[in-house]
Write a structure and sequence with these properties.
The protein is of the alpha+beta class. 42% of the residues lie in helices and 30% in strands. It has ten helices and 13 strands. The longest helix is centred in the middle third of the chain and has 24 residues. It comes from Ferrimonas sediminicola. InterPro entries: LPP20-like_dom. Keywords: Signal. This is Lipoprotein LPP20-like domain-containing protein.
Length: 310
Amino acid sequence: MSIRIAALLLILTATACRAAPPSWYLEPPSDSDEYLYGVGAGINLENARHQALMDVTSRLQVKVQGSLQTQTSVTDDVVATKANQLVRSESTGVTLTNYELHDSAHRDGTHYQLIRVQRTALLKGLGQQLALLLQEFNRLRTQQASPLVELRELFTRQQDAESARSLIAILQQQQQNLPSLEDLHWFEQRLSDSKKHRVIALKLEQTSEQTQEFLSQWLGDAGFQSSGPSPLATLKFTIQPQPAREIFGQFHVSLKGKFIVEEQGRVLNVKRLSATGVSSLSGEQAKAVAEQQMLNQIAKEDIWKLLLSI
């Protein structure tokens, strides 16, 4: 079932629409060498525009959502609405530009829109997006960065690589010439290689076995290993318990914790933590309570902010 048919069925069900849709909605203009056309229906203008854009881009195998900036003028009682708009893809990061509202109608509470996109401008815009992404991969490839900083860049640019591949597929489908993809290939190979070597060594002092297991799992959840050859960095964690104090039959223990992140002998970041535990059983039990509170604090930490002080 096409997008426009599915959308229309939903609108008819929701509004019990009695008026027939406009003829151009039921039989939209065919795409030409110059223009791509899309139709949409919705309970408001935004929904109708969204459906029309999805209709266009479904033929490019992307899904879109939009944010409009429109200029409206009235000439000879005909409303001509042109939109300069960036439409972000929901799944690929693809952006469409320079479409115009070709026709519209409002019947029984349902808005209908017919838009058209100039094919040449569309493909030019997609080519420019690809060029910008390739520039970013080239910057990463040529920069002088430590292994840990490079790994973070690889992590954060994965979506860009997926966007680039989507753009390439569309441009190839439309028989457009492609620039050199050497920098993209480098990025994808580097990302693949990095998955085999993501070791952050742990060095712990005065911590319990529970804390060691927790930190290993915490690193693992972020895609790191806590042991292995040639670590990218070393994560030192020290706990300094203060003497237990008994107050009205309750034991109180304060803990001071400190993370030190080192890369190739250079300190990247220092993070200090503190927690207090209370127990009626013993000072050791109060210390265990405080240590658990500290682990809860660590669980909320962004690991990249901790590792790189960003």
